[in-house]
């Protein structure tokens, strides 16, 4: 990820250097646009004739005419050196491309005419995001914050559940990029730079960097954290029109209104998977044959999960189909060894949850037990991750933090911008 503090661009080119951060720091670029109304940053939504329609990160829509005299250049995602930008033709711009548009101050009043456009191609953005997701999987760790030593830069996490539970020590230095999720969001591309003292016990946290063999100690290059709420309970009512449900929280015994948005990650645990997961979290072993293919990897696989909606952040890869016991996700082959076979397979609850089928609001039923991670709030929250079919898990104490790790590392719907 690009470090904003290290950006060095001569004088008048400062605004355009922000293009190097189109993926890593949309907040910073949005602020830049606010400071310079003659420029705007966004995604191309339409191309018609010589007119470009661009929707900014703030939701504003601009239509700008692009004359033949306009300077058009393309730069790679994350690139800071504008001398490496290459000239392009207007015909190469397509919907989905990210662009920074500088308007011509001499254009007639009431018109928007482009003086310069610097673009990042959609396919380059997708490639960069995939590379970042794979890096978070390979060199990342995650869990719930147990303690924070602000002065020493040491953050202690607890990760996993049941037999997989472990303690992780994260070392942050002056060069570590520290970010915090925006309120009511787990989108990596909306995270904001924040100091270490913004991290508190109970927060969810992901870090990537150089780690030891068992992943219990890591020198963090980048850290992202957020404060969320875990809720387990039964659905008391459903409102399809408003996409809301009311759940009786088993911990507080209070009714909580849950809002389901398009960004919510919703999955259904098959009964057999839920029973096996509950057994393992209680310290038992799964029965012979197991789930997701068994020891021989021959069972029909489940649909894999993609990573958290993170614009290249700490998510799993596109899961694909796991027929024949094989998984195409960034978490690696998952079906060959199975999760059962008398405990022969590696027990990874987060990977299991990632394979649970995705569901829609209409699939939920009154009286059904659910577990979810939501935004903070006493009686009114927005769901981030919701898991149905969890009746067996409610009897396993270790399951209480199960979604805390999963919601930040895998199991989300397809990546979306």
Backbone shape: globular
Strand order of the largest sheet: 3-2-1-6-7-4-5
Strand elements, count? 20
Fraction in beta strands: 25-35%
Rg, Cα atoms, Å? 23 Å
Helix count?
Answer: 6
What is the average of the pLDDT values? 75
| Helix content class | 10-25%
Q: Biggest β-sheet, characterized? A: 7 strands, mixed
Spans of at least 5 consecutive residues whose pLDDT stays below 50 are 1-36, 286-311, 315-346, 409-417
Q: N-to-C terminal Cα separation, in Å?
A: 17 Å
- Class derived from helix and strand content: alpha+beta
Which series of helices and strands comes N to C? Answer: HHEEEEEEEHEEEEEEEEEEEHHEEH
Properties at a glance:
417 residues; alpha+beta; 20 strands; 30% strand
Condensed summary:
The protein is of the alpha+beta class and about 425 residues long.
Description:
By secondary structure, the chain is of the alpha+beta class. The chain is built from 6 helices and 20 strands. The chain has helices spanning 14-17, 26-35, 122-139, 271-281, 349-354, 402-409, and strands at residues 39-48, 51-56, 61-65, 71-74, 86-87, 98-103, 114-120, 140-149, 154-159, 166-171, 177-180, 192-193, 204-211, 217-226, 229-239, 244-249, 255-259, 265-268, 369-374, 380-388. The strands form 3 sheets. The chain has a 7-stranded mixed sheet. The chain has a 5-stranded mixed barrel with strand order 8-9-10-14-13. The longest helix has 18 residues, at 122-139. The relative contact order is 0.12.
